[in-house]
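Input (structure):
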């Protein structure tokens, strides 16, 4: 046997390909008429027995190919075999699909997960040869916390099921962002990959703040003439329901805004200044000690000054 070793090949199912081998006097083998032909005008002239494989199929042609030369006679052990050449007949896998908690995520469905937890998301691309390569993206950011396994399909052992498992840490900033599973395969149409999408629905407790209650506006309110509008801001998912209370009692309002027009002392807890002391007239003996006390109840808390006229 002489010449060059068969080289590894890979082609899409259904096309014609050539396997090269150089040897003397051998005939192509096969039960399908016209499927395997000599590449050199149907004759191994000069020892070139390169073989045409017509209409390559997964069932018949995928696998390891060898060129063999039988022994010249039973007494001389001069049989030869070439090293194997791998022929992979490409089969495009199905479009990838995303699974969460064991269920297939259909187009338009979300993945709901609490903030601070970890979600295990699975992507599958099945019935392909060779196996698809799977990546994950959060918007345009490529994720790395995933692992992939490839296994032969039980009912079709010559094709593969590719399975990628992503461990995703759920954060508030990820809410509403798009999660994509991308399967790469040379038999897909250009650009040779297909995507499957879902949206992240990250739940989190509300963060509450009140707008309109700054010190400057509250300090200038006058009973009976001023008005005050307060708005409750609550950022949470799901969207929170907002109501107002005063002294434990629910106030009838329309939505997150509370309007007080005009403001009254019973709107304050505690109320604004209600009385000031001491009495206007205090009697005392000459050279005796007198204690004067000033009490004031107000909101904001009052300051004190004493004057003597």
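Output (sequence):
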């Amino acid at each position: 046997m002489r010449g060059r070793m068969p080289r590894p090949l890979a082609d899409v199912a259904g096309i014609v390909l050539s396997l090269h081998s150089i040897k003397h006097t051998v005939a192509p083998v096969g039960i399908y008429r016209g499927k395997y032909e000599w590449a050199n005008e149907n004759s191994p002239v000069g020892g070139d027995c390169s073989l045409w494989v017509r209409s390559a199929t997964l069932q018949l042609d995928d696998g390891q190919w060898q060129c063999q030369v039988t022994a010249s006679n039973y007494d001389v052990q001069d049989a030869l075999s070439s090293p194997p050449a791998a022929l992979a007949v490409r089969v495009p896998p199905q479009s990838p699909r995303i699974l969460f908690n064991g269920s297939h995520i259909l187009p338009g469905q979300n993945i709901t997960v609490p903030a601070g937890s970890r979600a295990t998301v699975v992507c599958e691309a099945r019935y392909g040869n060779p196996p698809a390569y799977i990546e994950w993206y959060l918007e345009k950011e490529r994720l790395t916390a995933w692992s992939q396994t490839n296994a032969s399909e039980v009912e079709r052992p010559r094709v593969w099921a590719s399975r990628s498992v992503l461990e995703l840490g759920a954060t508030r900033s990820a809410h509403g962002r798009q999660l994509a599973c991308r399967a790469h395969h040379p038999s897909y149409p250009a650009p040779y990959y297909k995507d499957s999408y879902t949206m992240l629905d990250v739940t989190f407790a509300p963060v509450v703040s009140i707008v309109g209650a700054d010190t400057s506006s509250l300090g200038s309110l006058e009973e009976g003439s001023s008005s005050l509008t307060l708005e409750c801001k609550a950022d949470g998912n799901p969207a929170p329901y907002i109501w107002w209370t005063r002294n434990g009692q629910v106030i009838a309002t329309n939505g997150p805004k509370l309007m007080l027009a005009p403001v009254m002392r019973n709107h304050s807890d505690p109320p604004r200044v209600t009385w000031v002391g001491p009495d206007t007239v205090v009697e005392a003996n000459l050279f005796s000690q007198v204690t004067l006390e000033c009490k004031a109840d107000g909101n904001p808390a009052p300051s004190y000054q004493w004057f003597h006229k």
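Notes: The first strand starts at residue 9 and ends at 12. The domain at 97-204 is CATH 2.60.40.10 (Immunoglobulin-like).
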